[in-house]
Write a structure and sequence with these properties.
Alpha-Beta Plaits; 18 strands; 9-stranded mixed β-sheet; homodimer; elongated; alpha+beta; 4-stranded antiparallel β-sheet; about 450 residues; Aminopeptidase
């Protein structure tokens, strides 16, 4: 069966890539209302394609924002598993246009790469599922498993309406496992399975001192300086060895097992010094930089400001100082408990003579982790390895993908995160592209995987 | 002799105030080149007045910026002392104009106050000297002491060319003591002699981390965050009891004597909590807020910024963080040594993985202090007390007046700082005014003082 499906994909490669090009030509920029019609057009492209290849039920789910495309084919029967495939058809803006070597919405192939906005993130990867489902349907008249497809149009603007929709229509979207291809591989040829993502929480706080900026000569020595108070509070939160000093921060952290440290060590990793330009990496005492980014929680100051920021000198004691903090969390940590801990720490470490106003980050998320030995993950890794002729690596990522945590939260199912992007895809930047070799190897991965489960 | 002079001042009050009004009508805003001609016009007003009342030599000293008016009358002979009177004829901009209750350049009397930009700072106080010199010349044909007058036009923009001019023409400006009336009294009726001012130094430093802002999920745990490093460096500079922890900072500090602490305690002082809106004052361990502001050095963060400052959250590790620091210094401290200490402290306390770029504040100044028991100061206090019918207080101020340090540095002479402004004068703000009762009592003070030395 696999052979026929693969042959279909080879025979119809040009035709399918032309369809992908049509998909990429639609400037479905979700953040800009000028493109609202194009966003709907891209949703229609997906729903039309699903109908064309024979999905049983295809619907455009309207939201208060952009619509989501739902499609299902459940002909594999009750004994076969059901997969929920998540992806998104919306794209980032193309600006700055002058930096593009070819029109962002006129797909162009150069050096084996397909250049277009959305080529990798995420239209190209979404289309691979459509192509594979088409190949199965056209050659075998069916799919090897039951499939539910959920392709949204608001990923690039925070997936504002997704959680409520999934929650409201929980039964409709229910599946045995989920698949998401909206990420990348650690190198161009290295099959990479994401088995963990970090959670997220944060807050912004403002330290208020005097009612107005004060003359530092007249009042210096009588008034607590909010900027210095801010520095003292922040410095009390982390030591120089990058250990977070907030009470209870590490309490529920699931420790890195020896097996995971082994996995982390064996995966090829980014050369942080080369790519960021720092003189040396700095990580939590007892952990390497890669271990810390992948498997240990972090606390970062994302922004801070107060007082005079212009040229030269202005001798004031400022009225206030503000800092923005976010944490990336690992499995075990409860975002709200961590946020509570930050609030308590700030309040308890605030020096006398100033007050603090704390605004909690409303969006928070638990970390996600699936057992890399789960059979559905192992099988994905096997198919992936075969197609790429290279053993898969399992990585955890420091970033957070809200939809992963939401699917986990609502459905509590394993999520197979296998991305076919590469480090050179320039997501969100001018000259985004997708490596066509990975398109082909990705199709083979998916065919093999669907046949194996 | 005093009686005749005072009678002249009473008899010619209206005429002299009208001349002051003419002076105030000139919008001599030094910072705005649109007013360049008006600045020159104000210089001419001063030089013409000095010529009219019979000064021997009156010159407009050109600089690369605005001119300075020099005048001298040396007819009192070699046995009489020579005073250098410093003041400035330039004013702050009048913006925001809509907040003025009357035209800033059309002097108006309301409730015993003369409202106009420059009424108190410093045209009104400069004019008092002109009025008194006029009264002496018209009634006695001479002045009781030798007088050199130095009225500049760049005080509100940093007196950029003054130091070099005084240094270059040191012999011309040489005197036995100096007088400056460009300050205020602690209350409306409290004769206040400033016998000390703080010195000044500072720097700006930028901590550089990665070449660009980084994704906090991908890089958090591997890269030192410049904002946190900034917080750690700043927090290492001061403890929660407002004690500066920079090595050597207090080494050369001239301690507050019991006599001075007594002077500080007896002077009426501002209610810091009421005027600034803080919940409590905070000062160096072992010193009251007033003692600290007047007599102990300070270190303040005047501004700080880095990373994302917009609304909401942006999960980055910023490329850099910047802070601006200034210190107010007391007698004994060498500004350059203090600045060196700050630089060394920052460099030595910088955590690994980031670099620092330090820009030293080019303007620095030593603190100034004169012995409050110096006969010239004591006599000024006596005249001041008689005219205001209230014993004079001696205060040190946390602010810095560069010209005071420069006169001290170049001529090494006592400087009598007696200001006739009041706390309600609204210097640099809309509705600046000068209390006319203090104009009259100030004239009496000057007449008595010049006759007593």
């Amino acid at each position: 069966m696999t052979e026929a499906v693969l042959k279909y994909l080879v025979d119809h490669r040009e035709e399918q890539l032309e369809a992908l090009n049509d998909f990429l030509r639609i400037p479905s920029v979700s953040t800009d209302s000028a493109f609202k019609d194009n966003v709907c057009e891209a949703a229609s492209f997906v729903s039309d394609y699903l109908k064309k290849i024979g999905f049983d039920r295809v619907e455009i789910e309207e939201t208060k924002g952009h619509p989501l495309v739902y499609g299902e084919w459940l002909g594999a029967g009750n004994d076969a598993p059901t997969v929920l495939v998540y992806g998104h058809y919306d794209v980032q803006p193309a600006d700055p246009l002058p930096l593009w070597e070819s029109d962002p919405f006129e797909p162009t192939v150069r050096n084996g790469r397909l250049f277009a906005r959305g080529a990798s993130d995420d239209k190209g990867q979404v289309f691979m599922y459509l192509a594979v489902f088409e190949a199965f349907m056209k050659t075998t008249g069916k799919l090897p498993i039951n499939v539910k497809v959920c392709i949204e149009g608001e990923e690039e603007i925070g997936s504002e309406h997704l959680y409520d929709l999934l929650q409201t229509k929980k039964a409709q979207f229910a599946a045995d496992f989920a698949m998401i291809s909206d990420s990348g591989m650690v190198t161009e040829e290295q099959p990479t399975i994401l088995y963990g993502l970090k959670g997220f929480t944060g807050l912004e706080f403002t330290i208020h001192g005097p009612a107005n900026d004060l003359h530092s000569g007249i009042y210096g020595g009588a008034i607590r300086n909010p900027l210095m108070a801010m520095a003292q509070v922040l410095a009390s939160m982390k030591d120089e060895h990058e250990v977070v000093l907030v009470d209870g921060f590490y309490d529920d952290v699931e420790p890195l097992t020896d097996e995971e440290r082994q996995l982390i060590t064996t995966a090829p990793s980014e050369d942080y010094i080369k790519t960021t330009g720092v003189s040396e990496t700095v990580s939590e005492a007892g952990y390497t930089a890669v271990e810390h980014t992948m498997g240990r929680p972090t606390l970062e100051v994302n922004g801070m400001f107060g007082g005079y920021q212009g040229e030269g000198t202005k001798t004031i004691i400022p009225a206030s100082a503000t800092a923005k903090l976010t944490c990336r969390l690992v499995p075990g940590q409860d975002p709200e408990k961590v946020q509570d801990g930050l609030v308590t720490h700030i309040e308890e470490n605030l020096p006398a003579g100033v007050t603090v106003e704390i605004e909690r980050e409303p969006l928070s998320a638990k970390a996600y982790k699936v057992d890399p030995n789960h059979p559905l993950i192992e099988k994905a890794a096997t198919s992936y390895s075969k197609a790429f002729n290279h053993p898969s690596v399992f990585v955890r990522m420091g970033g957070s993908i809200p939809v992963v945590e939401w699917i986990d939260d609502i459905f509590n199912i394993p999520i197979v995160l296998l991305g076919f992007g590469t480090p050179d895809d320039r997501l969100h930047s001018p000259n985004e592209s997708f490596l066509l070799a990975n398109f082909d190897r990705g199709l083979a991965t998916l065919v093999d995987y669907f046949n194996s489960i």
